[in-house]
Write a structure and sequence with these properties.
homodimer; 178 residues; alpha+beta; Nucleoside Triphosphate Pyrophosphohydrolase; 2 domains; 4-stranded mixed β-sheet; 3-stranded antiparallel β-sheet; 46% strand; globular
Chain lengths: 178, 178
């Protein structure tokens, strides 16, 4: 069965300060037409930064849309066509003040493929060294360092509730354990 | 450090066929004001339906925003204040044609807390029996059944790229293995 929907036309219908939305007319697999609204996103990275003692860095950050402080892996948006690895290095330095000598892509995934094109590039970073010169002191976040195993337990106990963080940490934990 | 951002005012700024966006003025932890744009979402469920032989059901579905057929766990949006468990039962019947006698909440998480309030309720369903009377034949999707272990491998090989699916399956696999 061909499940593909074909774009007929596209228009930008919302251009906010942060969010952009476009609406496309599409041809469905059964030949009918329908419309699709999509939140445009530049793509993002997430980083599981693992030290030699199997600790990882997490950031506590207030997330206004869900009105909660969440515990997340360091992450950030691609800056105008930026290479994902360059972005990951930049974000790890800015948010945590750390550089890494070994980088490994662990997952590439879509956060909400039902309504946004956001793609997430998840990296495992090892060989960590302090790199405080690029740390961004203006971000409202707190950095903590905890054993990877404790982070997995926090996921299973519901204390970590961010999808990119859950996906990235469990993938790393699974890969290291098996 | 108090990281909380306080709402000053709120207005709906986009009301599409599918997507709604509101913009709030907020007071930041440093006392300055800023604006936050949020995609409104009713919340959703995802289901890892595990049979007695440790197989799970996945659905192949075209996701227009990312222009790809993705392999995902059965899932769906809450229908006007619907209880998440009721929604999970309904979606499992509609998408897969299966009922379950044992339901367990495995995770509650946010798919994109940076720009949407979507909350995902992930369930593990066991004790599966056919329930084809509510199957929705109009959805454009294909159902497959594969060993849970194969699904984990597909995640690690990059063949499953949906965040709710990755989070839900790895959490179940981790719980069963440890």
């Amino acid at each position: 069965m061909d499940l593909t929907e074909i774009k007929i036309s596209s228009e930008e219908i919302f251009d906010g300060k942060i969010l952009k939305v476009h609406r496309d007319q599409v041809k469905l697999p059964n030949g009918k037409t329908s419309s699709r609204e999509v939140v445009d996103h530049p793509g993002a990275v997430s980083i599981v930064a693992l030290d030699d003692d199997k600790n990882i860095y997490l950031v506590r950050q207030f997330r206004y849309p869900v009105n909660k402080v969440l515990l997340e892996v360091p992450a950030g948006k691609l800056d105008g066509g930026e290479d994902p690895l360059d972005c990951a290095k930049r974000e790890l330095a800015e948010e945590v003040g750390v550089a890494a000598s070994e980088w490994q892509k662990i997952l590439t995934f879509y956060t909400t493929p039902g309504f946004s094109n956001e793609i997430m590039h998840a990296f495992l970073a090892k060989g960590l060294t302090p790199h405080i010169e690029d740390k961004d002191e203006d971000e409202f976040l707190e950095v903590i360092k905890i054993p990877l195993k404790d982070a997995v337990n926090k996921i299973l106990k519901g204390e970590i509730q961010d999808a990119k963080t859950i996906s990235s940490i469990l993938a790393v934990a699974y890969t290291l354990d098996t």
